[in-house]
Amino acid sequence: MSTPSGAVWGRAEQQDFRSRVRGALLGGGLGDALGAGVATLTLDEIRAAHGVPGGAGGGGGVGDLVPAYGRRGAVTANTQLTLFTVDGLIRAQVRRDIGAWHPPTDVHRAHLRWAATQRDWGPDLRRKDNGWLAQEEWLYVRRDPTISCLTGFGDQVMGTLDQPKNPIAQDAGALVRSAPFGLLVGWEPQLVCQLALECAVQTHGSPGAFISAGAYAVIVHEIARGGTLEAGVERACVLIAPRTGHEPVTAALRQALDLVRQGVPGPGQIAALGDGRTAESALAVAVYCALVAEDVRQGLRLAVNHDGPSAATGTLCGSLLGAMHGETALPPAWLAELEGRPTLLEIADDFAMEMTQGPALHSPDVTESGWLTRYPRG
Is 1 within the bounds of a domain? Predict the structure, then answer.
């Protein structure tokens, strides 16, 4: 993988970028939390438990955070894995100082640190190469990760495009952790797509699953650069077209665009896109809900009120809306209850600093610093 070209950042550009990064990570967390409490329910069951006619999205259903895992605002493995994706991307940039430039490997190592949180009782303080994120005790809980993620990261072997892990895994487990790749706004979109693909096959080898991850990263990339969601979808379709097995993903994205012009948004349109149990259908649901949303709250409500995995579609839609509108557009009452909000903000700001001011934080000549303690080169 070639090294992306650098960029010169003005102050206003830095502030806008940080807002979009915060928006993407916090928005994804909010969608995850909103969907977590109803993730195992059908739409009829959601309506029976939480909905009122004419409620969320115009079709009834959950419209506010509800308890999951013993509290309101709790997040799932979707958000956990996203945090470690960001950690891996920062570590990749830091490791460039020593000539170790292979982001898929660094992201894989980060996801292995996530896998340790699913096995261990708590942080291993003896491991000085873990950095700060792996020391966050609240992450050491299992929040319904997909079997594909657990088995994919269950050993040290890294899946590749030639030899992917779990070749029949079709779920959205790789897709939901892929928004951070799109935040590499200094990269060209084809590199963003390639990186997302290479990291997705570490757990999900079905073409629909890993190509969806590449397409999603490109869409996030376009809107994080200030483009439109529609333009992001079009660019994604072009970039995935050469990939064998892209057809279901392309068709799902085209259907989401077409559906925008077909009546008032609601559960009926979402059902036409599929139940979200495959990566491409989850992607289509998220894109559709983000396209038709009047605001973040409405978009997320639409994204979680359906028969499928609500936490996955909520996570995906939340990151799109957050990258599009920035952190200030997110519902403050929901943010106040979001589990892990300080951690999400901290790593969002670290990512924004690294991508805009990396040379001021570390260099090949520096072997010890506060930044290298947070993000070790080892």
Answer: no
